[in-house]
Amino acid sequence: MWLASNHKFLFSFFIHQPFIMKKNFIWLLSLLLSCINNNPSKTQLSEIKSHQAKTPESVSEDSPDCDPEKWKHVYDPDRLQVLDKCKIVTGVIMERNADPDGDEHMLLKLDKGQNHLLKKKNKNKKDGCLVIEAVCVNNITRKRAMGICNGYANNVWLPKVGDHVKVTGSYVLDSNNGWTEIHPISKIEKMK
Q: Which of 3, 4, 92, 141 has a CB 3.0–4.6 Å from the CB of 35, allowing a cystine?
């Protein structure tokens, strides 16, 4: 009975997963078997809801952590493949510079346990750092980007080189360059 009444929820949950890894397959199999017996445990139900809350597809566009309005001011957004709509990372700012498209381009040396977020190009071309970009914080000098920031003032706090920070924003693959980024940044906070 439980499976019959909740099949739409289960279908929408699993259809929106970008992939199911081996460990998730085993968990899924045990969940489905218990559902067939109409007997899912409360733990399994809470695991579904907690796992769903962490998936990129389920992050609400009105999430207090990520600001979807910033996407309206991203220069050439088609080059950015969204891997996670709202991601939080931590690390140390290693470099900062103004891009001609008005963005502040920074390199973030990730704290331990986050290196899986880096691609080979991050390691080879960005000294093992994650690229992070705050949109519309500098003067635009690239002609094709003119107008992207009209009427918009980005008030994100910008750290100094050497600051240990927590960065929130969209985790993307820059298909033009082959490295991963947080772009656009929604929030940066200095850590102690």
A: 3
| φ and ψ at residue 167, rounded to 5 degrees | -115, 130
Quote the CA–CA distance of 4 and 162 in Å, as a whole number: 55
Q: How far is CA 157 from CA 17, 20, 52, 124, 135, in A?
A: 33, 37, 30, 28, 12
Neighbours of 137 (CB within 10 A): 18
Q: What confidence tens digit (pLDDT) does each residue in 133-150 have? A: 999 999 999 999 999 999
Structure tokens at 61: 């566009």
* 97, two tokens: 């510079």
Q: Across the chain, where does the E strand assignment appear?
A: 80-98, 104-110, 130-134, 164-174, 179-190
Domain residue extents for the chain: 2-58, 68-190
The CATH class for the domain spanning 68-190 reads mainly beta
Which distant-in-sequence residues (6+ apart) come within 8 Å of 132 by Cβ? Answer: 89, 106, 107, 108, 167, 169, 181, 182, 183, 185, 188
